[in-house]
Write a structure and sequence with these properties.
The protein is α/β, with parallel strands linked by helices and 207 residues long. It has seven helices and ten strands.
């Protein structure tokens, strides 16, 4: 299994590069990246607006270097998230399944990925939901690779998944749907972390 980690956004609603913000002693993006690396043969990080800063923060300041870590740059991130998804999927190796995940989802752990892997079976994809809201990562079977890469930029993953055999996994775990898009969301994340203390682990959610 490989993972496409989307990290190309402009952070317009945050007002500053959100993936570089600190959380529990690391930048936000590192939490998502380390979770993906813990279960993936390779992780393809798709960068865009903050390519140089993000690359330095991950491989320079954090010292995270791995032959399982691949950076792909989207030269036109203004074309939208699906343009980054296509580039990431195009860079996948010979894998039976792949995840599409978000770099601004710091509460997702390796256990969340393993939960999806246990559920895939003969389905084309598995998507988690919390309180009726679709979340990430999304686990896709290999059959979706060509469907994604041949789709027009006007498509979205939500549209593609709506037309395929996707298993819906309902959970009460907010990690699936916690993405840090706004200053309010970031303050809430920090407040929650301060109240509960560091407790991230690679356990299976809902176990």
């Amino acid at each position: 299994m490989e993972t496409v980690l989307l990290a190309a956004g402009q952070s317009a609603r945050m007002g500053e590069p959100k993936l570089l913000l600190p959380y529990q002693g690391k930048i936000l993006a590192l939490h998502a990246l380390e979770a993906a690396l813990s279960v993936s043969d390779r992780v393809i990080v798709v960068t865009g607006w903050y390519r140089e800063q993000l690359g330095l923060a991950i491989t320079g300041l954090a010292g995270l270097k791995s032959d399982r870590l691949v950076f792909v740059h989207n030269p036109h991130p203004e074309r939208g998230q699906f343009s980054s998804t296509i580039l990431g999927v195009q860079a996948l190796g010979d894998c039976d399944a792949f995840c599409i995940s978000m770099a601004d989802a710091p509460l997702v752990t390796g256990g969340h990925y393993r939960t999806l892997l246990d559920l895939l079976g003969g389905h084309e994809a598995v998507r988690p939901y919390c309180d009726g809201i679709p979340g990430h990562p999304v686990l896709c079977s290999a059959v979706l690779r060509s469907i994604i890469t041949s789709a027009p930029l006007s498509d979205t993953m939500r549209y593609i998944l709506a037309t395929r055999d996707v298993l819906r996994y309902d959970s009460d775990d907010p990690a699936w749907t916690t993405d840090i898009d706004t200053p309010e969301a970031y303050r809430k994340l920090l407040s929650s972390s301060a109240a509960s203390g560091p407790n991230r682990s690679n356990h299976h959610p809902d176990a």
